[in-house]
Amino acid sequence: MTTGPTIIVALGVLLWASGAAAGTFYACAKRGADPYIVNEVSEVERLRREGWRCSIYLRTGAKSTSSDPSGTADSSSKPTAGTPTPPVVMAGAPDADRVRDYLPFVRAAAEKYSLPIAFILAVMKVESGFQRTAVSPAGAQGLMQVMPFNCHRLGIRDPFDAEQNIQGGTRLLRMLANRFEGDFVQVLSGYHAGGGAVDAKAGIPFEETNLYVKKVLDYYYHYKEYYAER
């Protein structure tokens, strides 16, 4: 999958900044036609059959204005995990028993980096299956499967510490959200394959990455029905 013309990005950012689009939306374009914004997946599928190019966007919040060159919040600030009001878990929530202990850390990271709780949980599910001590064949570590060479810049001293790993992994997602202007597909592609690979291909660089993005999206849409933001 490749991203649409530059005008899609510009229009997506405009809606994002104005608050006109809550949650996720699709920006669609077709040669000779005006850009088209839709919220319904069924409508996107119809447009794609008619030759439109659609990219999914996630309203992830405005970029940070901190002095951090990555565009993220100050990594030295203390996470607010364990606040008196925990994230709401609805009855029947998937994986509730496995993630309940991590939810205070996920909420703190979600608030700090302006990303949805369900989005972070979906990445965590696909990356590690909520296994705190997971290590991939490539050497990625912990719940968010952070590579060792990234740990220092993401503020992670112990990759198997749940709070540190969730904070660091979410910070990387925020950096990618800033880099790719909220394009959900490119953010996830960058997390899986690296931002440089996404830039080089102007979209999803590998078939394995395509499958990864689909899995995370599926879990995200499932989780957001059960894990409230506040």
Label this structure with key terms.
230 residues; Lysozyme; 3-stranded antiparallel β-sheet; globular
Account of the protein in words:
The structure is a single chain. This protein is mainly α. Among the domains are: 6-58, no CATH class; 96-176 and 206-223, Lysozyme. 46% of the residues lie in helices and 7% in strands. The protein has ten helices and three strands. Strands 2-1-3 form a three-stranded antiparallel β-sheet, sandwiched between helices. Strand 1 and strand 2 form a beta hairpin. Helix 4 (103-113) packs parallel to helix 7, helix 7 crosses helix 8 and helix 8 crosses helix 10 (207-223). The two termini are 34 Å apart. Residues 1-22 and 62-85 have low confidence and may be disordered.
Short description:
With 230 residues, the chain is mainly alpha-helical.
